């Protein structure tokens, strides 16, 4: 199976875009792909058929089987620009909600989100709607994109905020009650 003109991309060339290549502008979510039909701005249609799900970045190129390349550009997206005197604190709160965030000098960029906007406003941030390419930080472990993540424990972000850290521990209390710990739940 291939694109309408028979073009198939089975590889991505990191930083491989050339000035005369046709360009495909993809938003942040669309730049994470394995298999998808795409059409560049000049009408070049092709099928991306990669061995595994891959995050591509602006400046990369899809290598078509016939030798052509299609350059990747970051499409503009509706974002919130976050500024404030305590930018590190604001970034911490954004990260604590596992929200993608682009660090850009003296500002942060996040996707437009009513709940995050309300939280950041309450923390004293200066907020402004912008439209710009979105290139958030990758995962903390150098893996680039975070597609759902795992770091050794399960999350429940309800009010009780309970984590299972995969280890056994004893409880000593001066009163009698049972702490039955299922080994599968720590």
Alpha-carbon distance between the two ends: 48 Å
Unreliable sequence segments: 146-186
Domain count: 2
> Briefly, what CATH class of the largest domain?
Alpha Beta
CATH topology of the largest domain: Alpha-Beta Plaits
What is the 3D form? elongated
Succession of helices and strands: EEEEEEEHEEHEEE
CA radius of gyration: 22 Å
SS field, number of helical segments = 2
Largest sheet: 6 strands, mixed
Helix content: 10-25%
Count of DSSP E strands?
A: 12
Strand order across the biggest sheet? 2-6-5-1-4-3
3D structure, described in words:
There is one protein chain. The chain is mainly β. It folds into 2 domains: 67 residues, HSP40/DNAj peptide-binding domain, CATH 2.60.260.20; 111 residues, Alpha-Beta Plaits. 10% of the residues lie in helices and 38% in strands. The protein contains 2 helices and 12 strands; from the N terminus they run βββββββαββαβββ. A 6-stranded mixed sheet has the order 2-6-5-1-4-3, with no helix packed on it. It is elongated, with a radius of gyration of 22 Å. The C terminus is likely disordered.
